[in-house]
Amino acid sequence: MLTLQLINENPEAVIERLAVKHFDAREPIMRVVELDKQRRAAQKQRDDNAAQLNKMAAQIGALMKQGQREQAEAVKATVGALKNTNKEIDERLKAAEAEIEEILLTVPNVPYAGVPAGRTAEDNVVEKEGGPMPVLDDNALPHWDLAKKYNLIDFDLGVKITGAGFPVYIGKGARLQRALIQFFLDEAGKAGYIEVEPPYVVNEDSGRGTGQLPDKEGQMYHATADNFYLIPTAEVPVTNMYRDVILGADELPKMNCAYSACFRREAGSYGKDVRGLNRLHQFDKVEIVRIEKPEDSYAALEQMKDHVQGLLEKLGLPWHILRLCGGDMSFTSAITFDFEVWSAAQKRWLEVSSVSNFETYQANRLKCRYRGEDKKTHLCHTLNGSALALPRIVAALLENNQTPEGIRVPACLHKYTGFEIID
Question: In the 8-state DSSP scheme, what is residue 410?
Answer without folding.
Answer: P
